[in-house]
Structures are given as C-alpha cells and as structure tokens.
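[recover] target loaded
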C-alpha cells in the first residue's frame, strides 16, 4: 500500500450508503417475507400500515439485529459493506491500515449513533476532516480508504490470491 492512502470522501461514502440501503432493504424484505409469509410483504408495502402490529416490534428488532451482525461481519471479513466494496472502498484501522478487529468494528457501529446526533453532524464531518473521518471513525480509530488494484504490486496481488 502507498505510504499515504487516498481517503474516501463524503460523496463516495454517501453513494456507498445509498447502495447498501437498497441492497439491505431488498434482502430484509425477502428474508422477512419468507419468515412471515405474503401478509408481511403486503403489510410492509402499505404506506398507511398500522405501526402497532406484531410485525412492527418483532421485525424492527430482528432487522436491527440482522443489520448489526451483517455489517460487523462484512467490515471484519471483507473490509466493507457491498456499497463500499462496489465503490472500491475499504474500512480499515486508522494507524495500521489493516482489517478491523471485532471490538473496533463494534465501536464503529456504536459510533454511528453518535454521528447521527446533532442532525447528522458526525457524518457530515467527513466532508471537512483531513482524513475524511466521521465521528464514528474517530471513536473507533478507523478510516475509509479508496483501493485501486492498479496501485498494488504483483507480490501483493499474488498474496491476496492465495
């Protein structure tokens, strides 16, 4: 890796989040339709749905649990969620640029809630920060870098292929 990586900026990270939202929404809709049947899909697709049905409480908790586990797994195992990976971004340790440790991934996820406070200032901070870190990145000591395969040496590519 180059001594000074290219940090993923606000718009690239925003686009990655939008891609993730679409992908995770589709996966969750399919998963919960399989769990609850067609009635769930009808309820979910109805904009005037009753928020106090059994689906709302159970599904909200399960959705959050599925999102938590999937996101943590993807960060630790693959260095990013589908949106980040599609846009050539990796979430890595801010000092070593190596994969996140599980505890670090949990800290980053918890930091999302901090970043949402004050009208999302923690996410907007990415636009002004030198290393393009949001509050959640600073808390967990992570950065999001842009990975260009053409910058890698042959040895690095061979190591990754093993």
């Amino acid at each position: 890796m180059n001594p000074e990586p290219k940090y993923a900026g606000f718009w690239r990270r925003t686009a990655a989040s939008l891609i993730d939202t679409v992908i995770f929404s589709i996966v969750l809709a399919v998963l919960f339709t399989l769990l609850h049947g067609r009635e769930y899909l009808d309820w979910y697709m109805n904009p005037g749905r009753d928020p106090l049905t059994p689906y709302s409480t159970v599904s909200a908790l399960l959705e959050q649990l599925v999102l938590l586990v999937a996101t943590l797994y993807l960060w630790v195992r693959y260095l990013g969620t589908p949106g980040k990976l599609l846009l050539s971004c990796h979430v890595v340790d801010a000092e070593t640029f190596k994969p996140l440790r599980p505890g670090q991934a949990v800290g980053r996820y918890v930091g999302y809630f901090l970043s949402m406070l004050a009208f999302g200032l923690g996410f907007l901070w990415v636009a002004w920060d030198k290393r393009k870190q949001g509050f959640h990145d600073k808390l967990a000591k992570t950065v999001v870098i842009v990975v260009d395969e053409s910058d890698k040496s042959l040895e690095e590519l061979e190591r990754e292929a093993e």
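[recover] notes: Residues 6-161 form one domain.
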